[in-house]
Amino acid sequence: DGPVRLIYHSTPHRGLELLVNAFEHLAETNNIILDVYSSFSLYGWKDRDKPYEELFERCRNHPKINYHGAVSKEEVRAAVAKAHIFAYPSIWQETGCRTLTEAMSAECLCIHPNYGCLYETAANWTLMYQWNENKLKHTRKFAKILSYAIEDIKTGSLNSILQAQKAYADQFYGWSEKAKEWSILLKNILYEKGRK
Question: Rounded CA gap, 11 and 41, in Å?
Fold first, then answer.
């Protein structure tokens, strides 16, 4: 019955500006809230935030955006668990995306382009769209899909799909499975080293 909650929990250079542009437009006619957890200070690089201060200020000043900056991992995980949509119009060609796997595991409807590793990571469980290097066209496409997603969340029609998405993410990206993979890898390295 309340607002649809969106979350962005990555560094600002990965598409936060596109999200804020789309959100400002959609917030005029939709009951939505955006929580932004984004800052390079997480890595101790406060100076890297300077080019994004104006963007952060837009977030702080918007009545439907909560800008949190960098906080503990526990606080981010709790926020992702309360969110409905992971909004990620990524412009960064990633080779791995922890934020996407965490959002999938939290049963968030994930919206992102098919750019870099996002296509493989999502494994067809998410709302994915064709990436565009033109930021304006990218923002428009993302906003359109986000608009549809907000309506889908309100109906609750995706609940079973999101539960299956969580099961997939937990099975293939959970630490219990990853620990086994790393253990096998390291044992094989030691085995090969011992054979030489």
Answer: 9
How confident is the model over 135-159, as pLDDT tens digits?
999 999 999 999 999 999 998 889 9
For the stretch 9-28, what's the b/e string if a residue is b when 16 or more beta carbons lie within 10 angstroms of its beta carbon?
bbbbebbbbbbbbbbbebbe
Q: Note whether 60 and 67 are within 8 A (CB).
A: yes
Q: Which residue has the higher pLDDT, 180 or 54?
A: 54
- Crossing angle of helices 159-173 and 98-105, rounded to 10°: 130
Beta strands in 42-159 (DSSP E): 65-67, 85-87, 109-113, 127-129
Place of tokens 């011992």: 194
Tally DSSP H helices, then E strands, for the chain. 8, 6
**What is the radius of gyration, based on Cα positions, of the chain?**
18
Distance CA 159, CA 175 (A): 24
Q: What are phi and psi of 112, to 5 degrees?
A: -165, 165
Model pTM score: 0.90
* Confidence at residue 191, expressed as pLDDT on a 0 to 100 scale: 85
For residues 137 and 144, give the distance between their C-alpha atoms in angstroms, rounded to a whole number.
11
Alpha carbon distance 27, 6 (integer Å): 11
| Chain centre to alpha carbon of residue 112 | 8
The packing angle between helices 16-26 and 135-155, to 10°, is 60
Mean pLDDT of 15-30: 97
